[in-house]
Amino acid sequence: MARKVSPYSLGLLVLPLLLAAPAYAQNQVSLIPKPNHVEMHEGGYIFPSATPFAAFEPFMEVAALLYDHPFAQFTAVERIKSHKRIPATGVRLVQARAEDRLTNDAYRLVVDTSGIVITAHQAPAMLNGILTVLQLAYTQPDGRRLPAMVIEDKPRFGYRGLHLDVSRHFYPVSFLEKFIDLMALYKFNTFHWHLTDGAGWRLQINKYPALTQRSAWRTHPAWKDWWHNGRRYLDMGEPNASGGYYTQAEARQLVAYAARKGITIIPEIEMPGHSEEVLAVYPELSCTGRPYQHSAFCIGNEKTFTFLKDVLTEVMAVFPSKYIHIGGDEVDTTSWGTCAKCRTRMEQLGVDSIAGLQNYAVARIDSFLQANGRRLIGWDEILDGGAPKDATVMSWRNVESGLAAANAGHDVIMTPNSHLYFDHYQGNPRTEPEAIGGYIPLQAVYGYNPIPAGLAADKAKHILGAQGNIWTEYMPTTDQVEYMAFPRAIALAEVVWSDPVGRDWDDFNKRLQTHYRLLQQLDVNYYRPSYAVDIHVDFNPDTLTNTVSLTTEQNELGIHYTTDGSDPVAGSTLYTKPIELAVPATIKAAYFVDSARVGGIATAKADIHKAIGKNIVYQTAWDASYPAQKDSTLLNGQKGGEHTGGGQWQGFVNNVDITIDFQRREAINSVAIDFLRDPAANAYLPGEVTVLFSDNGKNFREAGTVTNGAATDSGFREVKTFSIDFDVQQTARYVRVVATNVHNALLLTDEVVVY
After folding, report:
1. Closest CA relative to residue 563, chosen from 542, 584, 590
2. Contact at 8 Å (CB) between 730 and 670?
3. Which residues are known to be catalytic?
4. Element (H or E) spanning 17, and its range?
5. Are 90 and 77 in contact (CB under 8 A)?
């Protein structure tokens, strides 16, 4: 939303904006995150061959970041000594005054024919203004030209993060620098570096050299192969050793590199679980005293705490961050229950639960970090045993855990696996590289709100921000990391920065199109928008019509469709708005570029069948986790799509057994019912579907059975229609449908279609 800026706050800088010639004016800029206030003017600024550059003293250091501009050259930075001596041209970094009416975290950017003026109170805010100039360079048609504009902007949250797991797969420092460059352009300010886990220890610890001489190297390059083939480590230098680690010098180099761009690196040293790689070389720290036995440190062993403190002492010497992440998640406590030292420690502490023992371990490390001027962050499992009051919680399991932590007074960073796990699929698994599971498309990330519903108003201050997590089990290459991270990370950047009132998916998607140019210029292997067409059919029971909507991830028109079941061609109707249908139809649609079909053909049926709205009796009840629309679900004319969400898939943990009452005898030509297979939801297809008819509701005769021959071990989501067509028209008042649950799993169905 544009807003007028007082000319008194801009001084004489406003005048050239109105006088400039419009020859190279740009009506819009496509910044992400979207600034809070943008005001466009005619005219603009062309960078000269050597652009004058000046800054007030507090900004002399951050000024150097502007030298990263890809298309402009700047003179040496001149120090501005007072507001009366601000140069008239070039780039000027100006210290804000009270009359500028800027908060401490805000900046103002003014572009006119004289150049660029960025005004801010503090260096971090000034840095954000510079990053805006750099992003404009990559997203404007001509990076040497800027349109005239006024921007006022500040972040919504103080914590804006991305996480990267380098344990499952090791990536070189050069890639991490590129990753940080991209983070900076989108105004992230925290890089959560997951350095240790069972798949490999990645940071040099001088006091414990075996961590990088052996625990950083394994038998297989790919995590999946290593995981399924013994999970063993090798000494560095052995022919089959695969892995790597970062020296402390390299880590310090990366810390400094990130700090220059306004990004703090938070290291994560995983404890007390996910510690196989440590226990393999220091088995005395385990409960069994044997390598490869269990994955958690022995909490009853004082040697463990000596080791952890030694490691953290070296970590703190490398990383100056306020926070140190200690993990604390998914601890395998199997050995704790039988470990004599653990039982003794529990007796000493007066605790009667394993959770209490874990809380003791977290509290000890918390005290150690506090004594060294640092604060502890842990995954939300640290809440289970009662986390230290001042511990910051990273909420990943669900939104509810973050809500509970904030209401309890903990500072919280939201990173729920429902919206911000970038290792999940972002497209159809059948056409995507293998991922860990789940489905989080770009629009789902953009629609996320880090403030949980139900959070008390006085507790909102505890939500520090949000973070996207990149777990790398299925990302063996840097190309794959980029593919999974972008553009989803760009959507998150706007979520954590911009005012939610002004956020709009269509507007974001339009601006995003320009950012594909940026990603291409920086050689980022991002996920390309899919050409696949999604068909959504919405039935109106009042008018007995279907409204058909066709969408793709493309931003330009290009969908052509038919409603007679024929395959679409370039000459088929171009989709421009939803289609209204008053009769049953088979819709087929595909995306075309310059008359060539570039995507597959999508097919859907718009049913207006005779069972809609009829009475239904459930011989078996639906599962409370998937009630959908309750007893109207299976006869409401609505289909469930390819995902469990949306409220149309009804779940059954036993057989599906329902009976439809038409109130009178009806002629029946076919009966069909859909089921969704989704291994992530433990939902599988039935063994068989049987249709039975009756005239009195008591005596049923079998009309037909369809057997499912599909494999049950597929990792792909699939909607399958079980249909029985009758060569000879049948008549009946009652139609009973029985689907057998043969996998002791969930059956998900959405509609019984009767013609």
Report:
1. 584
2. no
3. 197, 274, 330
4. helix 14-19
5. no
Q: Which domains does the chain have, with CATH numbers?
A: 7-153 (3.30.379.10), 159-521 (3.20.20.80), 534-606 (2.60.40), 615-754 (2.60.120.1190)
Confidence of residue 7 (pLDDT cuts 50, 70, 90): very low
Q: What is the per-residue pLDDT across 464-510, written as a single tens digit (0 to 9) for each?
A: 999 999 999 999 999 999 999 999 999 999 999 999 998 999 999 99
Q: Are strands 463-470 and 534-540 parallel, antiparallel or unpaired?
A: unpaired
Give the distance, in angstroms, between the CA of residue 326 and the centroid of all CA atoms in the same chain: 22
Query: What is the Cα 132 distance to its own chain's centre?
Result: 23
DSSP 140: S
Measuring CA to CA, which residue among 495, 561, 641 is closest to residue 187? 495
* Structure-token pair, residue 520: 């291409």
CA–CA distance, 374 with 387 (Å, rounded to integer):
16
State how far Cα 296 lies from the chain centre: 29
Residue 500: Cβ-neighbour burial (10 angstroms; 0-12, 13-18, 19+): exposed
pTM: 0.90
Strands 688-694 and 718-739: what pairing? antiparallel
Choose among 402, 499, 420, 500: nearest CA to 460: 402
Distance in angstroms between the alpha carbons of the first and the last residue of the chain: 52
> CB count, 10 Å around CB of 534?
17
320 in Cβ contact with 352 (< 8 Å): no
Contact 617, 694 (CB under 8 A): no
Instruction: Output the CA angle 599-602-605, nearest 5 degrees.
Output: 170
Which residues, in sequence order, are bridge partners of residue 54? 78, 92
- Going by C-alpha positions, the residue among 91, 93, 89 that lies closest to residue 107 is 93
Q: Strand, helix or coil at 679?
A: helix
- pLDDT for 44 equals 95
